[in-house]
Amino acid sequence: MIDRLKGNKVVGVKQTVKALKNNTVKTLYVSKDADESLIKPLIELAEENSIDIIKVDTMKDLGRLCGIDVSAAIAALLK
Predict the structure, then answer these.
(1) 29: number of CA atoms within 13 Å, CB side?
(2) Can you give the residue ranges of the Ribosomal protein eL8/eL30/eS12/Gadd45 domain (predicted)?
(3) Counting Cβ atoms within 10 Å, is residue 77 exposed (0-12), middle (13-18) or buried (19+)?
(4) Is the confidence at residue 3, as pLDDT, over 90?
(5) Residue 65 reports pLDDT greater than 80
(6) Is 1 contained in some domain?
(7) Positions of E strands within the chain
(8) Which long-range contacts (C-beta less than 8 Å, at least 24 apart) are formed by 15-18?
(9) CA dist., res. 25 & res. 76, Å (int)
(10) What is the pTM of this model?
(11) Contacts of 37 (CB under 8 A, 6+ apart)
């Protein structure tokens, strides 16, 4: 597994939605234990735009990957 996401990124549902709508996302990172009702629309949008989706085991792991001290449901690496 990766130690840390390198490059420009956004963390969280609101920031990721903005990035997806602006077509600036290269890779989407989704935690497997996130609330599906929150992340499912973002996953669908990413799939429609042929964006790579990487699943991370837990929200805590995703937060750590993003370099933050809190859990994260979703994050995006930007182009």
Answers:
(1) 28
(2) 9-75
(3) buried
(4) no
(5) yes
(6) no
(7) 9-11, 25-31, 52-56, 74-78
(8) 15/76, 16/42, 16/74, 16/75, 16/76, 17/42
(9) 6
(10) 0.93
(11) none
Instruction: For residue range 28-61, list pLDDT tens digits in order.
Output: 999 999 999 999 999 999 999 999 999 999 999 9
Of the listed ranges 3-7, 9-13, 34-38, 46-50, the one predicted with least confidence: 3-7
End-to-end Cα distance, the chain? 21
Phi and psi at 18, nearest 5°, equal -60, -45
Please check whether residue 49 is in contact with residue 2, taking contact to mean a CB–CB distance below 8 angstroms: no
Residue 55 — left, alpha, or beta (φ > 0 → left; ψ -120 to 50 → alpha)?
A: beta
CATH of the domain at 57: 3.30.1330.30
